[in-house]
Write a structure and sequence with these properties.
single chain, 155 residues, mainly alpha, 6 helices, elongated, signal
Length: 155
């Protein structure tokens, strides 16, 4: 969600700069924002590969839980947040594939909560929250698979 707001902020800033005209010392950030926006617009995400990445991360998280590897849990959480950001940037409002980004974010939260539980930080609360978030993850992943299937049929 934060990535959407950041992207909107960059777009508004670029539009305001274009309307207001050049401001002394402000041309470089606007050019950088335009380059960033153009790069995002040209990128196409393979949502099928993203789902495979999410499922692989799920397996890594399960293995890390068995060994109590906090570092691996943190690494997967960060990786999934990056994937979520990419997926959110590549979906338009109303695009059912946005569930893929939500699934990545949910699994990231599960990994983070399990990391807290592994450390002993409010273990019961962390486990309960992870269980609830995992159900949300499963629901979003199912919606994501369905949306990808529908998108592939429409081509």
């Amino acid at each position: 969600m934060r990535a959407v707001f950041l992207t909107a902020f960059v777009l508004v800033a670029a539009a305001n700069a274009a309307v207001a005209g050049p401001v002394v010392g402000a041309s470089t950030p606007v050019k950088q924002a335009n380059v960033t926006i153009a790069a995002r617009a040209g990128a196409n995400v393979d949502f099928g590969a993203a789902v495979r990445d999410i499922l692989t991360a799920e397996q890594v998280i399960q293995a890390a839980l068995q060994t109590g590897d906090e570092l691996k849990l943190g690494e997967q959480s960060r990786r999934l947040l990056q994937l979520q950001s990419t997926l959110v940037e590549e979906t338009e409002p109303g695009d059912a594939r946005s569930a893929c980004g939500q699934a990545a974010g949910d699994l990231s939260a599960v990994a983070s909560l399990m990391r807290r539980a592994t450390r002993g930080d409010e273990r019961a609360k962390s486990l309960l929250a992870a269980e609830k978030t995992e159900q949300s993850y499963r629901d979003h992943l199912a919606s994501c698979d369905k949306a990808i299937g529908a998108a592939n049929l429409s081509r």
